[in-house]
């Protein structure tokens, strides 16, 4: 047993050492993920399935556009189904500068009102009844967290880096997260979020990864709240890159006008 434990420890140390030998830190890896090519603009249709512990399902459909503006990203999405949420829109301006608070707006057509999502609410409130926070729906700045390379592991036959990320802002809903990143395509395949008591809270899994128009693309993600049993499945369809998008699409006036 002692020999086996020593062997496992040696393997773990060698795994960390191989990444360190390449001169990569946890932050380096997360920056590589953020810099992964994905076109200057993007479009997709989205199916979001909300599943209760009992198995009851609710399906929602959306259309989504995104545009990179320098190092920043603007996104807008509109719900198209079902009728009770149709026309609801969500607009984000994600800033690469960690000292600059991202802008987020939610338009509710039934109230004909646009709600600005505050910095604190975006970290703790869940998006439209899903298991994703508002912050999960945007592009996170690498330096909003500190990153530590833990080890390397093989997941689904693919070699991955395992990185622990700790938010610098104490208002975040999680104490830290551990993320598995495929080395061949720089795509996240799993991320575990731990609560302030250091217990596993949510688990994100990403699958159906392949190339579309030459860009590595994921088609399916699931976020499960392991403490409540509720889960959200997102299917990305009709993904297109470098589409023609007008910059004025990503404005509050367009958010309120709809598609």
Automatic annotation (TrEMBL):
<feature type="domain" description="Uncharacterized protein TP-0789">
    <location>
        <begin position="72"/>
        <end position="257"/>
    </location>
</feature>
<dbReference type="InterPro" id="IPR033399">
    <property type="entry name" value="TP_0789-like"/>
</dbReference>
<keyword id="KW-0732">Signal</keyword>
<feature type="signal peptide">
    <location>
        <begin position="1"/>
        <end position="21"/>
    </location>
</feature>
<protein>
    <recommendedName>
        <fullName>Uncharacterized protein TP-0789 domain-containing protein</fullName>
    </recommendedName>
</protein>
<dbReference type="Pfam" id="PF17131">
    <property type="entry name" value="LolA_like"/>
</dbReference>
């Amino acid at each position: 047993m002692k020999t086996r434990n020593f062997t496992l420890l040696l393997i773990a140390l060698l795994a960390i050492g191989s990444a360190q030998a390449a001169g990569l830190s946890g932050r380096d890896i997360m920056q590589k993920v953020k810099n992964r090519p994905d076109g200057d603009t993007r479009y997709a249709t989205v199916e979001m399935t909300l599943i209760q512990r009992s198995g009851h399902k609710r399906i929602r459909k959306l259309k989504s556009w995104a545009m990179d503006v320098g190092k920043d990203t603007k996104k807008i999405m509109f719900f198209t189904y079902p009728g009770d949420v149709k026309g609801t829109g969500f607009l984000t301006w994600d800033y690469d500068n960690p000292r600059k608070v991202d802008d987020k707006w939610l338009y509710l057509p039934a109230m004909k009102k646009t709600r600005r999502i505050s910095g604190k609410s975006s970290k703790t409130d869940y998006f439209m009844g899903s298991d994703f926070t508002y912050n999960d729906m945007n592009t996170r700045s690498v330096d909003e967290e500190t990153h530590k390379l833990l080890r390397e592991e093989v997941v689904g036959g693919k070699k991955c880096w395992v990185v622990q990320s700790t938010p610098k802002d104490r208002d975040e809903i999680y104490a830290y997260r551990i993320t598995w990143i495929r080395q061949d395509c720089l795509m996240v395949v799993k991320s575990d979020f731990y609560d302030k008591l250091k217990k596993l809270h949510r688990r994100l899994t990403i699958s159906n990864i392949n190339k579309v128009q030459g860009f590595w693309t994921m088609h399916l993600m699931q976020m499960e709240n392991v403490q409540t049993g509720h889960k959200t499945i997102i299917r990305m369809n009709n993904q297109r890159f470098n589409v023609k998008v007008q910059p004025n699409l990503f404005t509050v006036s367009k958010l309120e006008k709809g598609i």
